[in-house]
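ARCHIVE CARD
SHELF: 3
SLOT: left
DATA:
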Amino acid sequence: MSTSGRAGGAGLVLVAAGGLAREAAAAARAADVAVLGCLDDNQALWGREVAPGLPVLGGLSVATERPDARFLVCAGSGVVREGLVARLDALGVCPERYLTLVHPRASLAPDTVLGAGTLLLAGVVATADVVLEEHVVCMPNVVLTHDDHLESYATVCAGVVLGGNVTIGRAAYVGMAASLREGTTVGARARIGMGAVVLRDVGADETWVGVPAVPLRRPATDALS
């Protein structure tokens, strides 16, 4: 696993041109990382700016035209991020080319471990022995306490608080302002609704909502954030 760093002289290319990319661009500029623009398969966006100074350079295939650039995948869904990374891998983008980006206003203990391609926005706190694997996203004001472990492609939304020794599984999604009891595990690709209070383990591919959180037994439409 890598630690955060600069994109180098070639600059940073963001993959996906939605709201998370705009937030990542702001974090990059705060960290003095030059942002070249975004890649997105939506042809209607090509050549346009999705924010001032943030042009859409083209589709994913444009990655082959930027041999010296670093990349950061900015899809909000971990499942989608994983698919985009697989496509970039097929285009020859190696793991070493993913930048780990930490906003300067995040507060991380020295023993925090960060995987390649991980994004931490402003106000994220990691206290002690926290591990984040590859392509994890933590949105503003997330609190990660001792011995928490976020597996690759996990997404933790704004204001989430994890008790100690919590595990968030691969490509799982934790909605805004949710709280997880110490020692709990959220399985791979599971989804936790906003404001939920999780007191028990959540199985893979399950959706839990409420206080205390319980499994959702109907289609998740407006329940999540």
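SLOT: right
DATA:
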Amino acid sequence: MSSSRRPDLEGFHRAADDRAMPDLVDEARADAASHVLVIAGDAAPLDEPGRLHWSAAADVPDGGEWAFLGRDATGSAVLAAVFARSDDELFAAPGGWGGLRVVGGTLPAREAEIFIEALSLGRWLLDAPFCPACGTRTRLEKAGWSRRCPHCGREHFPRTDPAVIVAITSARDPDLLLLGSNALWSANRYSCFAGFAEAGESLESTVHREVHEEAGVEVEDVRYRGSQAWPYPRSLMLGFLATAVDDGAARADGEEIAAVRWFTRDEIGEALAGGGDILLPGTASISHRLISDWYAGRS
């Protein structure tokens, strides 16, 4: 598997208007100047640690779903070729293969952004081939960004579901942060509290409801801190910082959350540095950013 020249991603843009061009993907696949990010399951090939491997279209194995992601600074097409998860590697990448959760935080920001775009779109391409209204197999349109049902005529688009993720500060001590341990995790892994917005619910209401359900506390001073697309499964994570009204009310729901714990700033700093007895979210996640920003006093 040879590598194409590396795209100039400093000028990358999605070029959404180009998606209406007939045969855009086929023409880009035939262009030797195009760059392809191959996705298998949730992993991408690497040239080396912290750098994605870009392929020429002619080198990509058969059988994948293709989509147009955008153009680099030179105007060359950037494509995704997406394959289902397999026990066997599609090809031997120079730096091996890495999943988004594992390597996303080590990539340059623009490469991480494109990895997330390709994986988010790719999961929809593989998982939603049939019309949800009538069950007919749909056909891809708009360079992989929509599906049209040939039977009922409906057009379908990739779903993105809003979800909140919240770090909780103490009402009495600015050097305490409340985190929770999910029931599916090891006992020493902690993160922020998160949940999907329900139908007819504002993000602020979601913050109050989810935090009370999972951690037992009422919160105030809810502050928006940023967002992140996250393809597990198809989320837009909206990050918040909030303050507990009563620290002593904190308790795990016993179902989704197995434990909650107030951590000191020193404990968080030690964990961020890779020490201590707790594990925090990986650097690719907005949860890690919420925690590290609080620790650094940027909240």
